[in-house]
Amino acid sequence: MKPVLALVGRPNVGKSTLFNRLTGTRDAIVADYAGLTRDRHYGSGKQSGREFIVIDTGGFEPDAAAHDIYREMAKQTRQAIAEADVVIFVLDAREGLSVQDHDIANELRRLGKPCLLAANKAEGMKDSSRLAEFYELGFGDVHAVSSAHGQGVRALLELALDML
Ligand code: GDP
Ligand code: MG
């Protein structure tokens, strides 16, 4: 069985962009607004001869009622965490920590999955103290990446695969 990596995080942090980087496809829909991807999305990738599966999350039916959207997103996140061997918890380095980030962190703790923190959109960020607040989540190191530019993505992937 190939190991499964799940990408979780609140809308618009760049999960689908990271998914495309990791899988080398543009299969997941990348939106300029939050949450266009309709479904949990699976892709496969290979790094240094190691194959893996990636799950993108965050899709919902666009016509669903607002409360259903949030319920659906939470359900997808839970399912993806449950299916994963390692979770990559994606954060927005420019926006910083949010209430939703704390909710996801609590879910990860409850399910007890190995987890890596990826602070995305970190290209050109000279001041790494902006990332300090993410340590509050209690998952250790924060890995600065730029999914859009590919920076730090390979190193993150190597770390994730080494956790297996
Ligand atoms: P998702 O909702 O978490 O799947 O986020 P998307 O992958 O759809 O990305 C949301 C927005 O953030 C899009 O406009 C992306 O182009 C942008 N984005 C994604 N990764 C990066 C990044 O590394 N740097 C910057 N500046 N923008 C990014
Ligand atoms: Mg997405």
Automatic annotation (TrEMBL):
The lineage of its organism: Bacteria, Pseudomonadati, Pseudomonadota, Betaproteobacteria, Burkholderiales. This is GTPase Der. GTP 1 binds at residues 9-16, 56-60, 120-123. Belongs to the TRAFAC class TrmE-Era-EngA-EngB-Septin-like GTPase superfamily. EngA (Der) GTPase family. Associates with the 50S ribosomal subunit. Residues 3-164 form the EngA-type G domain. It comes from Xenophilus arseniciresistens. GTPase that plays an essential role in the late steps of ribosome biogenesis. The chain holds residues 1 to 164 of 452 of the full protein. It comes from the Bacteria.
